[in-house]
């Protein structure tokens, strides 16, 4: 990649195995959109290798400008469909990051790996960095795949995963928000088109089940990656006191979310604890600076969120929908 008068390329001090690659503006006042033409070939060359690129020191501006930058890589931005966490739409194709309370930690995960369709690219724009904490840790999903015990990896690969969700009732996101519609027929059509089993419960709420992949192969690099959210969906992810309180008021099948092996048999909590240990070992964490933009290959890199204090605003865009049935 030839040198540029607009930016320098270097490893980030906190990087691990080149993740993320740092692209630093060479001076004040360089607009990220003005650098886009030179950044496209850099991203095409480096992102499949390093899995994540951090753009730092550029002028970005309003979320609409960020949207224009993300869309400038040649693919329409995606809507946040069949989401698992609360978010708000900021502008077309741009959403807030997960709106969980600041004290909560969000474990490493690949976006929408709990479904059979997901974005290949995801961008994060730090509009306002938190006073303390609030990092977006990342990890190489190829390395996670390699480090997970071979027996566990084989079992997950062969059996797949069944995700169950119970929407609403004040315990999880309402189905109307998840499916962007209050029409049950729209929900049923979406589920049918995406191989999601559904049932309407007596109280009018919705339960879904979907069998998905545990690992996946990248359609371009052909790398195998650990690609699921079993450690997040499983009831063992809840703090013990929360888990006990929930199970006092609902049966296991009515938990807001849970996950089983693809045949419906239970996943051993000890297995998921081992997976969580691998994820923790693979994690790369670095501080956000206001104005930072992080671009990830969503299959090659997982992301998380650390607890924080003070105001924090990070917005997200996604593109290049891809699916388990696309021959990856």
TrEMBL record:
Keywords per UniProt: Antibiotic biosynthesis, Dioxygenase, Oxidoreductase
Keyword Metal-binding in the entry? The reply is: no
Q: Which organism encodes this protein? A: Pseudomonas nicosulfuronedens
The cofactors required by this protein are: Fe(2+)
Which InterPro entries does the protein's record reference? AlphaKG_dependent_hydroxylases (IPR050411), TauD-like_sf (IPR042098), TauD/TfdA-like (IPR003819)
Query: GO: which molecular function terms?
Result: 2-oxoglutarate-dependent dioxygenase activity
- Protein name from the UniProt record: TauD/TfdA family dioxygenase
Outline the extent of the TauD/TfdA-like domain.
23-317
One GO-annotated biological process of the protein: antibiotic biosynthetic process
């Amino acid at each position: 990649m030839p040198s540029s008068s607009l930016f320098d390329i270097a490893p980030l001090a906190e990087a691990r195995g080149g993740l993320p690659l740092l692209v630093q503006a060479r001076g004040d006042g360089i607009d990220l959109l003005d650098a886009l033409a030179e950044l496209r070939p850099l991203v095409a060359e480096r992102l499949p290798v390093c899995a994540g690129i951090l753009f730092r020191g550029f002028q970005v501006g309003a979320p609409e400008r960020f949207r224009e930058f993300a869309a400038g890589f040649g693919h329409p931005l995606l809507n946040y469909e069949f989401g698992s966490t609360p978010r708000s739409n900021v502008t077309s194709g741009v959403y807030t990051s997960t709106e969980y309370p600041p004290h909560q930690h969000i474990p490493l995960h690949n976006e929408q790996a709990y479904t059979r369709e997901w974005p290949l690219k995801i961008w994060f724009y730090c509009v306002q960095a938190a006073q303390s904490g609030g990092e977006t840790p990342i990890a190489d999903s190829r390395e996670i795949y390699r480090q997970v015990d071979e027996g566990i990896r084989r079992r997950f690969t062969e059996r797949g995963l069944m995700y169950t969700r119970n929407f609403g009732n004040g315990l999880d996101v309402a189905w109307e928000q998840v499916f962007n519609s209050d029409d049950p027929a729209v929900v049923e059509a979406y589920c049918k088109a995406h191989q999601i089993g559904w049932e309407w419960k007596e109280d009018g709420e919705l339960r879904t089940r979907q069998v998905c992949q545990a690992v996946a192969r990248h359609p371009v690099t052909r790398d195998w990656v650990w690609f699921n959210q079993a450690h997040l969906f499983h009831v063992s992810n809840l703090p013990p006191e929360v888990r006990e309180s929930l199970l006092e008021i609902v049966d296991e099948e009515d938990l807001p979310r849970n996950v089983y092996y693809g045949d419906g048999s239970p996943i051993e909590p000890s297995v998921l604890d081992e997976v969580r240990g691998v994820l923790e070992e693979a994690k790369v964490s670095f501080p956000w600076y206001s104005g930072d933009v992080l671009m990830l290959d969503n299959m090659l890199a997982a992301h998380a969120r650390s607890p924080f204090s003070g105001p924090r605003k990070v917005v997200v865009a996604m593109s290049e929908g891809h699916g388990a049935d696309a021959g990856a």
